[in-house]
Write a structure and sequence with these properties.
By secondary structure, this protein is of the alpha+beta class. It is 45% helix and 17% strand. It folds into two domains: 5-171, Jelly Rolls; 181-288, Homeodomain-like (Arc Repressor Mutant, subunit A). The chain has twelve helices and eleven strands. A hairpin with a 2-residue loop joins β5 (49-52) and β6.
Protein backbone atom coordinates (compact mmCIF):
# COMPACT_ATOMS: atom_id res chain seq x y z
CA UNK A 1 0.00 0.00 0.00
CA UNK A 2 1.27 3.47 -0.84
CA UNK A 3 1.77 6.17 1.73
CA UNK A 4 1.17 9.89 1.54
CA UNK A 5 3.81 12.44 2.52
CA UNK A 6 4.30 12.38 6.30
CA UNK A 7 5.02 15.91 7.47
CA UNK A 8 7.19 16.42 10.54
CA UNK A 9 5.96 19.68 12.08
CA UNK A 10 8.46 22.15 13.60
CA UNK A 11 6.92 21.99 17.11
CA UNK A 12 9.38 21.16 19.89
CA UNK A 13 8.61 19.77 23.34
CA UNK A 14 8.96 23.28 24.79
CA UNK A 15 6.51 24.88 22.35
CA UNK A 16 2.78 25.24 22.91
CA UNK A 17 2.19 25.74 19.20
CA UNK A 18 3.75 26.85 15.94
CA UNK A 19 2.23 29.71 13.95
CA UNK A 20 3.14 30.98 10.51
CA UNK A 21 1.66 33.68 8.27
CA UNK A 22 2.24 33.58 4.52
CA UNK A 23 1.22 35.68 1.54
CA UNK A 24 1.23 33.52 -1.55
CA UNK A 25 -0.09 33.26 -5.09
CA UNK A 26 -0.24 29.48 -5.33
CA UNK A 27 -0.53 26.30 -3.28
CA UNK A 28 2.13 23.68 -3.97
CA UNK A 29 2.27 21.54 -0.79
CA UNK A 30 1.06 18.01 -1.66
CA UNK A 31 -1.48 15.86 0.16
CA UNK A 32 0.04 14.97 3.52
CA UNK A 33 -0.66 14.04 7.12
CA UNK A 34 0.93 14.64 10.52
CA UNK A 35 0.45 13.78 14.17
CA UNK A 36 -0.12 17.34 15.38
CA UNK A 37 -3.39 19.25 15.24
CA UNK A 38 -3.70 22.01 12.63
CA UNK A 39 -5.91 25.08 12.34
CA UNK A 40 -5.63 26.66 8.90
CA UNK A 41 -7.00 30.07 7.90
CA UNK A 42 -7.08 31.29 4.30
CA UNK A 43 -8.18 34.73 3.12
CA UNK A 44 -8.67 35.63 -0.52
CA UNK A 45 -8.51 32.05 -1.71
CA UNK A 46 -11.83 31.71 -3.52
CA UNK A 47 -11.54 28.71 -5.84
CA UNK A 48 -8.78 26.98 -3.85
CA UNK A 49 -9.54 23.27 -3.55
CA UNK A 50 -9.60 21.87 0.00
CA UNK A 51 -8.92 18.13 0.31
CA UNK A 52 -9.57 16.49 3.70
CA UNK A 53 -9.84 12.73 3.56
CA UNK A 54 -12.41 12.00 0.87
CA UNK A 55 -13.93 15.50 1.03
CA UNK A 56 -12.99 17.74 -1.89
CA UNK A 57 -14.51 21.24 -1.98
CA UNK A 58 -13.70 24.66 -3.41
CA UNK A 59 -13.46 27.27 -0.67
CA UNK A 60 -14.80 30.84 -0.63
CA UNK A 61 -13.12 34.12 0.26
CA UNK A 62 -12.62 33.04 3.89
CA UNK A 63 -11.67 29.57 5.06
CA UNK A 64 -10.98 28.19 8.55
CA UNK A 65 -10.58 24.45 9.07
CA UNK A 66 -9.36 22.33 11.98
CA UNK A 67 -7.79 18.90 11.46
CA UNK A 68 -7.10 16.71 14.51
CA UNK A 69 -7.21 13.25 12.95
CA UNK A 70 -3.88 11.48 13.27
CA UNK A 71 -3.06 10.27 9.78
CA UNK A 72 -5.95 12.18 8.16
CA UNK A 73 -4.75 13.21 4.70
CA UNK A 74 -5.30 16.83 3.76
CA UNK A 75 -4.10 19.63 1.51
CA UNK A 76 -5.13 22.93 -0.03
CA UNK A 77 -4.60 22.97 -3.80
CA UNK A 78 -4.67 25.78 -6.34
CA UNK A 79 -7.95 24.75 -7.94
CA UNK A 80 -9.45 27.64 -9.92
CA UNK A 81 -8.04 30.42 -7.71
CA UNK A 82 -6.28 33.23 -9.59
CA UNK A 83 -5.70 35.71 -6.74
CA UNK A 84 -2.04 36.75 -6.54
CA UNK A 85 -2.16 37.73 -2.84
CA UNK A 86 -3.65 34.94 -0.75
CA UNK A 87 -3.15 35.22 3.00
CA UNK A 88 -2.68 32.01 4.96
CA UNK A 89 -2.22 31.56 8.73
CA UNK A 90 -1.35 28.06 9.88
CA UNK A 91 -1.35 27.07 13.55
CA UNK A 92 -0.06 23.64 14.51
CA UNK A 93 -0.14 22.34 18.06
CA UNK A 94 0.47 19.09 19.87
CA UNK A 95 -2.46 16.82 20.86
CA UNK A 96 -0.92 17.03 24.35
CA UNK A 97 -1.31 20.81 24.56
CA UNK A 98 -4.57 20.27 26.46
CA UNK A 99 -4.32 16.84 28.08
CA UNK A 100 -7.20 14.50 28.90
CA UNK A 101 -7.32 15.62 32.54
CA UNK A 102 -7.92 19.21 31.48
CA UNK A 103 -10.29 18.39 28.62
CA UNK A 104 -12.44 16.33 30.98
CA UNK A 105 -13.25 19.46 33.02
CA UNK A 106 -16.65 21.04 32.45
CA UNK A 107 -15.12 24.31 31.25
CA UNK A 108 -13.45 22.50 28.35
CA UNK A 109 -16.39 20.29 27.35
CA UNK A 110 -17.13 22.16 24.11
CA UNK A 111 -13.46 22.16 23.05
CA UNK A 112 -13.22 18.43 23.73
CA UNK A 113 -16.25 17.75 21.53
CA UNK A 114 -14.81 19.99 18.81
CA UNK A 115 -11.52 18.07 18.84
CA UNK A 116 -13.44 14.80 18.51
CA UNK A 117 -15.42 16.05 15.52
CA UNK A 118 -12.28 17.50 13.92
CA UNK A 119 -10.79 14.01 13.63
CA UNK A 120 -12.68 14.00 10.34
CA UNK A 121 -11.76 17.61 9.61
CA UNK A 122 -14.02 20.45 10.74
CA UNK A 123 -14.66 23.59 8.71
CA UNK A 124 -16.19 26.62 10.41
CA UNK A 125 -19.02 28.92 9.40
CA UNK A 126 -18.56 32.53 8.33
CA UNK A 127 -20.06 33.95 11.57
CA UNK A 128 -17.54 31.92 13.61
CA UNK A 129 -14.66 33.07 11.40
CA UNK A 130 -15.70 36.69 11.89
CA UNK A 131 -15.85 36.21 15.69
CA UNK A 132 -12.23 35.03 15.87
CA UNK A 133 -10.80 37.08 12.99
CA UNK A 134 -9.39 39.91 15.11
CA UNK A 135 -8.00 37.49 17.73
CA UNK A 136 -6.39 35.39 15.02
CA UNK A 137 -4.85 38.50 13.51
CA UNK A 138 -3.51 39.59 16.92
CA UNK A 139 -2.22 36.11 17.73
CA UNK A 140 0.39 36.22 15.01
CA UNK A 141 1.58 39.67 16.08
CA UNK A 142 1.63 39.02 19.84
CA UNK A 143 5.15 38.58 21.22
CA UNK A 144 4.40 37.93 24.90
CA UNK A 145 4.09 34.14 25.08
CA UNK A 146 1.53 33.77 27.85
CA UNK A 147 -0.74 36.34 26.22
CA UNK A 148 -0.34 34.49 22.93
CA UNK A 149 -1.33 31.21 24.62
CA UNK A 150 -4.44 32.76 26.18
CA UNK A 151 -5.51 34.17 22.81
CA UNK A 152 -5.13 30.70 21.33
CA UNK A 153 -7.41 29.19 24.00
CA UNK A 154 -9.91 31.97 23.33
CA UNK A 155 -9.93 31.12 19.62
CA UNK A 156 -10.48 27.42 20.32
CA UNK A 157 -13.30 28.19 22.75
CA UNK A 158 -15.09 30.55 20.36
CA UNK A 159 -14.82 28.05 17.52
CA UNK A 160 -16.12 25.25 19.75
CA UNK A 161 -19.42 27.14 20.05
CA UNK A 162 -19.97 27.25 16.28
CA UNK A 163 -23.25 25.45 15.58
CA UNK A 164 -22.63 25.83 11.85
CA UNK A 165 -19.33 23.91 11.78
CA UNK A 166 -19.31 20.94 9.35
CA UNK A 167 -17.32 17.71 9.46
CA UNK A 168 -15.62 16.89 6.17
CA UNK A 169 -14.24 13.37 5.69
CA UNK A 170 -16.45 10.32 5.98
CA UNK A 171 -15.91 8.14 9.03
CA UNK A 172 -14.89 5.23 6.81
CA UNK A 173 -12.08 7.30 5.25
CA UNK A 174 -10.82 8.99 8.40
CA UNK A 175 -11.40 6.02 10.73
CA UNK A 176 -12.31 8.51 13.46
CA UNK A 177 -13.78 7.08 16.61
CA UNK A 178 -16.64 8.70 18.48
CA UNK A 179 -15.99 8.14 22.17
CA UNK A 180 -19.12 9.48 23.81
CA UNK A 181 -21.95 7.91 21.85
CA UNK A 182 -24.64 5.50 22.98
CA UNK A 183 -23.59 1.86 23.35
CA UNK A 184 -26.55 0.87 21.20
CA UNK A 185 -25.45 3.25 18.43
CA UNK A 186 -21.89 1.91 18.67
CA UNK A 187 -23.19 -1.65 18.38
CA UNK A 188 -25.11 -0.80 15.22
CA UNK A 189 -22.17 1.11 13.72
CA UNK A 190 -19.83 -1.82 14.42
CA UNK A 191 -22.23 -4.14 12.61
CA UNK A 192 -22.46 -1.79 9.63
CA UNK A 193 -18.67 -1.45 9.48
CA UNK A 194 -18.36 -5.25 9.22
CA UNK A 195 -21.26 -5.89 6.84
CA UNK A 196 -21.54 -2.73 4.66
CA UNK A 197 -20.62 -4.76 1.55
CA UNK A 198 -23.68 -6.95 2.10
CA UNK A 199 -27.40 -6.21 1.97
CA UNK A 200 -28.38 -4.66 5.31
CA UNK A 201 -32.03 -4.48 6.28
CA UNK A 202 -33.50 -1.97 8.68
CA UNK A 203 -35.17 -4.81 10.58
CA UNK A 204 -31.79 -6.44 11.18
CA UNK A 205 -30.30 -3.27 12.65
CA UNK A 206 -33.35 -2.65 14.82
CA UNK A 207 -33.15 -6.22 16.11
CA UNK A 208 -29.58 -5.68 17.29
CA UNK A 209 -30.85 -3.21 19.90
CA UNK A 210 -34.27 -4.79 20.51
CA UNK A 211 -36.30 -1.94 18.99
CA UNK A 212 -38.98 -1.71 16.35
CA UNK A 213 -37.75 -0.43 12.94
CA UNK A 214 -39.62 2.88 13.27
CA UNK A 215 -38.44 3.51 16.84
CA UNK A 216 -34.89 2.55 15.90
CA UNK A 217 -34.86 4.95 12.92
CA UNK A 218 -35.88 7.84 15.16
CA UNK A 219 -33.35 6.81 17.82
CA UNK A 220 -30.46 6.49 15.35
CA UNK A 221 -31.19 9.81 13.69
CA UNK A 222 -31.42 11.54 17.06
CA UNK A 223 -27.91 10.34 17.93
CA UNK A 224 -26.21 10.70 14.54
CA UNK A 225 -28.27 13.34 12.69
CA UNK A 226 -28.66 10.80 9.87
CA UNK A 227 -31.06 7.98 9.17
CA UNK A 228 -29.59 4.44 9.31
CA UNK A 229 -29.87 3.88 5.54
CA UNK A 230 -28.23 7.24 4.85
CA UNK A 231 -25.42 6.31 7.24
CA UNK A 232 -24.88 3.00 5.43
CA UNK A 233 -24.50 4.86 2.12
CA UNK A 234 -21.95 7.19 3.73
CA UNK A 235 -19.94 4.21 4.95
CA UNK A 236 -20.05 2.58 1.52
CA UNK A 237 -19.01 5.78 -0.25
CA UNK A 238 -16.23 6.39 2.28
CA UNK A 239 -14.92 2.85 1.88
CA UNK A 240 -15.07 3.19 -1.90
CA UNK A 241 -13.11 6.46 -1.68
CA UNK A 242 -10.42 4.78 0.40
CA UNK A 243 -10.16 1.91 -2.11
CA UNK A 244 -9.97 4.34 -5.03
CA UNK A 245 -7.01 6.05 -3.37
CA UNK A 246 -5.18 3.06 -1.91
CA UNK A 247 -5.76 0.21 -4.38
CA UNK A 248 -5.51 -0.48 -8.09
CA UNK A 249 -8.87 -2.27 -8.18
CA UNK A 250 -11.18 -1.37 -11.03
CA UNK A 251 -14.10 0.94 -10.38
CA UNK A 252 -16.46 -1.96 -11.09
CA UNK A 253 -14.72 -4.14 -8.48
CA UNK A 254 -14.91 -1.34 -5.92
CA UNK A 255 -18.57 -0.73 -6.72
CA UNK A 256 -19.69 -4.27 -5.95
CA UNK A 257 -17.12 -4.73 -3.19
CA UNK A 258 -18.65 -1.81 -1.25
CA UNK A 259 -22.25 -3.01 -1.42
CA UNK A 260 -23.62 -1.16 -4.45
CA UNK A 261 -25.82 -3.25 -6.71
CA UNK A 262 -25.00 -1.60 -10.04
CA UNK A 263 -22.34 0.64 -11.53
CA UNK A 264 -24.57 3.50 -12.65
CA UNK A 265 -26.09 3.81 -9.17
CA UNK A 266 -22.58 3.78 -7.66
CA UNK A 267 -21.33 6.52 -9.99
CA UNK A 268 -24.40 8.66 -9.36
CA UNK A 269 -24.33 8.22 -5.57
CA UNK A 270 -20.58 8.80 -5.30
CA UNK A 271 -20.75 12.03 -7.31
CA UNK A 272 -23.70 13.34 -5.29
CA UNK A 273 -21.78 12.74 -2.03
CA UNK A 274 -18.26 13.70 -3.11
CA UNK A 275 -18.78 16.11 -5.99
CA UNK A 276 -16.71 14.01 -8.39
CA UNK A 277 -17.21 10.76 -10.26
CA UNK A 278 -15.16 7.83 -8.91
CA UNK A 279 -12.84 8.08 -11.91
CA UNK A 280 -12.21 11.82 -11.45
CA UNK A 281 -11.82 11.39 -7.69
CA UNK A 282 -9.10 8.76 -8.20
CA UNK A 283 -7.34 10.96 -10.75
CA UNK A 284 -7.26 13.94 -8.37
CA UNK A 285 -5.63 11.94 -5.59
CA UNK A 286 -3.18 10.17 -7.90
CA UNK A 287 -2.08 13.51 -9.35
CA UNK A 288 -1.42 15.19 -6.02
CA UNK A 289 0.03 12.41 -3.90
CA UNK A 290 3.73 12.24 -3.11
CA UNK A 291 4.81 8.67 -2.33
CA UNK A 292 7.54 7.94 0.19
Amino acid sequence: MTKVLHEITPITEKDCFFIAERHKSEFTWPIHFHRDYELNYIEGGRGVRRVVGDSIEEIGDYELTLVTGKGLEHAWEQGSCTNQDIREITIQFSPDLLDEALLSRNQFASIRKMFERARMGLTFSMPAIMRVYSILDELYRTEERMEQFLKMIKILYELSLDTGARTLASSAFSVAQESNESRRVSKVKDYIDKHYAEEIRLETLAGLVAMSPSAFSRFFKQHTARGPMDYIIDVRVGSAARMLVDTAKSISEICYGCGFNNLSNFNRTFKSRRGYTPRDFRALFTKNKVFV
